[in-house]
Design brief:
The complex is a heterodimer of chains A (about 260) and B (about 240). Chain A is built from eleven helices and no strands. Chain A is mainly α and about 260 residues long. Chain B is mainly α and about 240 residues long. Helices cover about 85% and strands about 0% of the residues of chain B. Chain B has ten helices and no strands. Chain B starts with a helix and ends with a helix. The chains are: A mainly alpha (about 260), B mainly alpha (about 240). Chains A and B meet through helix 1, helix 2, helix 4, helix 5 and helix 7 of A and helix 1, helix 2, helix 3, helix 4 and helix 6 of B.
Chain lengths: ~260, ~240
């Protein structure tokens, strides 16, 4: 029962990681605020559930999805696989078509499973009194991450400088900000940062590393980075686009038919 | 009986959240790479663990992380001491980031890149000290980000001016930073915010915005994470220039 032993260690590591946060919270609570915490037992119960939950979550990912996902990233970027249908021997950017599709699909699907995005979506749903749907937000963010990672992979294949894409992205974000509904702006900016954590980062990092070590002329240490940056930029645009679309739809359905 | 039903429902929700990953990995393995799925029962057990974990996490979120974040926001607002609130904001940002495993991994990779690019001496000792310095830099930058973010909520400033100002900072730094560091700097924005920090910081922001008169929790309460993913980019590039 190796997996149970591993589970125990993963939970222990999670507790260790959470310790600084717990010390800060309870330290300020006891020394500065000096007020009893309402429902203290429930809150401690909640912390324990979060720790156990993250332990199970991370251990399950390590046992099942990460090894297979990382192996897959390696196999898909392997020159033998890329050049399989290519008789001429010269590899063009289009020969990486399966890699783009994989990048898109893995970006979308890992984002849907990302716990911190779920947390923000639940909160946004509560705060907006239901007008921002949990699934609507999650899917909008996931599409953004999917497009971002696919484009990031294209960048590694073609070897163009990272900052061109990121700075162009910033210009788009600024323009969209001018036209987006005010209520969504802060949430959209937040969704850039929350998307990339526990599930997405290890798989995406494996993809970047696999690609940059097999594409001729790329250096894994220099070109392997940057996918996370794409994954944190594109959701900002997709969430604002989602809000603009729903606003436009609401306006159109209000207009009387002519 | 009711509790069991709720638990089962949220477990099924978690399984549904995982379904896309399972489909994607299954499709690529069977249809594209045309290979069998290895260790099938181990993978099944792993998926079960992930679903259990997600279920427990969501329960704990609503019971523990959200309420404590909001309770503290209300308590600070009623105490009325800006200094303590900002100090708490800094401690929360710094403390949650400095021990973040993803950051530790990125920092040590960055040290390897720096050594290869001859920015630092290629020895174990100088790499360790470079990585440590980078971690502290990022943690300070996140602490600083939460301080600015909290200050913005109190003042009610529109977020876009600050974020766009940050973007301009990133662009200017990109021009001057050594090119080896740019990729790592851009990535460091995304990896700093962990699964426990995000709900806590979000609840803090929303709690503050709803306890201060004239603030809208939707417009003013969100945005703390956005600052925390922007400032590390600027600080890491600055670190690359100085060290």
């Amino acid at each position: 029962m190796q997996i149970l032993v591993d589970l125990f260690f993963t939970i222990a590591t999670t507790i260790w990681d959470v310790l600084p946060i717990a010390i800060i919270i309870f330290g300020f609570q006891l020394l500065v605020l000096r007020k009893p915490i309402p429902n203290l037992r429930k809150i401690i119960g909640g912390f324990i559930l979060v720790l156990l939950g993250l332990g199970f979550f991370l251990e399950g990912l390590e046992a099942a999805l990460f090894p297979l996902g990382k192996l897959m990233a390696q196999q898909l970027t392997d020159p033998a696989f890329i050049a399989a249908d290519n008789v001429g021997g010269i590899i063009e950017w289009w020969d990486y078509k399966w890699v783009y599709l994989f990048a898109f699909a893995i970006g979308f699907s890992t984002t849907i499973a990302e716990p911190s995005l779920l947390a923000v979506a639940i909160k946004a749903n509560q705060v907006s009194a239901g007008s921002i749907g949990i699934w609507g937000l999650r899917i909008a963010v996931a599409i953004g991450v999917a497009i971002g990672i696919a484009l990031g992979v294209y960048r590694i294949v073609t070897g163009t400088p990272l900052y061109w894409y990121i700075i162009t992205g910033y210009v788009f974000v600024v323009i969209q900000t001018l036209y987006a509904p005010r209520l969504i702006i802060a949430l959209a900016y937040d969704s850039g940062g929350v998307t990339t954590s526990t599930v997405t980062v290890p798989l995406v990092a494996a993809l970047g590393l696999g690609l940059s070590s097999t594409v001729p002329g790329r250096n894994p240490l220099l070109d392997g980075f940057g996918l996370i940056a794409f994954a944190s930029l594109f959701p900002i645009m997709s969430v604002m686009a989602y809000a603009q679309l729903s606003e436009w739809q609401a306006k159109r359905s209000k207009q009387p038919p002519e | 009986m009711k509790l069991l039903k709720v638990a089962l429902n949220s477990f099924l929700d978690s399984l549904r959240d995982l379904l896309p990953i399972i489909l994607v990995i299954g499709f690529f393995q069977l249809a594209v790479l045309q290979q069998p799925i290895p260790n099938f029962d181990e993978i099944l057990l792993g998926v079960l663990f992930v679903a259990i974990g997600l279920t427990l996490f969501v329960q704990g979120l609503n019971m523990g992380l959200f309420p404590i974040g909001e309770t503290m926001a209300y308590a600070f607002a009623s105490k009325g001491s800006l200094t303590w609130l900002l100090l708490f904001a800094f401690a929360l940002g710094f403390g949650t980031t400095v021990a973040e495993p993803a950051l530790i991994a990125v920092a040590s990779e960055a040290a390897t890149v720096a050594a290869l690019g001859n920015m630092i001496e290629n020895s174990e000792a100088s790499k360790v000290s470079y990585a440590f310095g980078l971690r502290i830099t990022v943690a300070i930058s996140v602490g600083f980000a939460i301080v600015i973010g909290v200050f913005r909520i109190i003042k009610g400033w529109p977020i876009q001016y600050l974020i766009i100002g940050g973007y301009i900072g990133v662009v200017i730094m990109t021009i001057f930073a050594p090119k080896e560091i740019i990729g790592i700097a851009y990535d460091s924005g995304g990896v700093t915010t962990s699964t426990i920090t995000v709900p806590l910081v979000t609840a803090l922001g929303v709690g503050l915005a709803s306890s201060i008169k004239g603030r809208n929790p939707m417009i003013d309460g969100f945005g703390l994470i956005a600052f925390a993913s922007l400032t590390p980019m600027i600080f890491v590039m600055a670190y690359g220039m100085v060290v």
